[in-house]
Structures are given as structure tokens and as C-alpha cells.
Design brief:
Organism: Vogesella aquatica
Number of strands: 0
Number of helices: 7
CATH superfamily of the largest domain: Uncharacterised protein YqeY/AIM41, N-terminal domain
Pfam families: YqeY
Distance between the termini: 45 Å
CATH architecture of the largest domain: Orthogonal Bundle
Radius of gyration: 18 Å
Number of domains: 2
Helix content: over 70%
Low-confidence stretches: none
CATH topology of the largest domain: Hypothetical Protein Yqey, Chain: A, domain1
Mean pLDDT: 91
Protein name: GatB/YqeY domain-containing protein
Strand content: under 5%
């Protein structure tokens, strides 16, 4: 079953079970997918849908930071609940050890010698890690390895 079909089925299930918060998060996801398809005039595959989910999760993390800084825990909790629903549609996340192994391999493959080669390393890693790791955290790890 494709990811899009799974999301549609989950939306129907949430409707039948009257899970309003879960249903709202899934509808937001479906709207974002549809918007991307209309904008680019393509039918998104699983990788494209994963990219949309990843973008939505990043937006939620940013919102949570802003809400907590503004002392609006109620809104931060709502965003966290949406994140929990959205996370279910991502592929299995990489462990810290797996990320380190992949970074070491990419550094060796690209012949990176310092910070100026950061882009080469990221270019090698991004296709393999998209949706499976927080690329901001991966970037920080690469910087630490290249600087040290």
C-alpha cells in the first residue's frame, strides 16, 4: 500500500472513531500533499510525501519553540500532538550510531578535508537520510567531525 493510500485509510478510520485531533492533523497533511501536487503538477510518490511530512514536522518544531517562549503551553501541546500523528508516516528513523557510520562513510567517499567540503558531504548523505533523520542535527554532527 502506498503512503498516500495509508494516509487516506487512516483519515477514514479517524473519522469513524471520532478522533477529532488526529483527524485534523491528517487533514492538514492531506491538504499539504494536495497543494504540493497542484503547485508542481505531479502525483507525489512516497519520497515526495515523506518530504512534505518532514517539512511539516520542521514547522511544528519551530512553532513549539515559539509557543514555549511565549508561555503558551496549550498551543505547544497541540503542535506536539500533531507531530506525534505526522511522525507515524515517516520511515524508520536512523539511530545515532547509524548516522555516525553514514557520516564517516560520506566524509571518506568525498575526500572531505575541512569545513569547505561540508556541501559535498551533505550532498552524499541527503538522499539516504531524507525523512529518516533530522538534517539539522546531521549537519551539526558533520560540522563537529570536520572541525575536529
Amino acid at each position: 500500500m502506498s503512503l498516500k493510500a495509508r494516509i487516506s485509510e487512516d483519515m477514514k478510520t479517524a473519522m469513524k472513531a471520532r478522533e477529532t485531533d488526529r483527524l485534523a492533523a491528517i487533514r492538514l497533511l492531506m491538504a499539504a500533499i494536495k497543494q504540493k501536487e497542484v503547485d508542481e503538477r505531479v502525483e507525489l510518490d512516497d519520497a515526495g510525501i515523506t518530504a512534505v511530512v518532514d517539512k511539516m514536522l520542521k514547522q511544528r518544531r519551530d512553532s513549539i519553540t515559539q509557543y514555549e517562549a511565549a508561555q503558551r503551553q496549550d498551543l505547544a501541546d497541540k503542535e506536539k500532538a500533531e507531530m506525534a500523528v505526522l511522525t507515524a508516516y515517516l520511515p524508520q528513523q536512523l539511530t545515532a550510531e547509524e548516522i555516525d557510520v553514514m557520516i564517516d562513510g560520506a566524509i571518506a567517499a568525498s575526500g572531505a578535508a575541512g569545513m569547505q567540503d561540508m556541501g559535498k558531504v551533505m550532498a552524499l548523505l541527503k538522499p539516504h537520510m531524507a525523512g529518516r533523520a533530522d538534517m539539522g542535527a546531521v549537519s551539526a554532527r558533520i560540522k563537529a567531525k570536520l572541525a575536529g
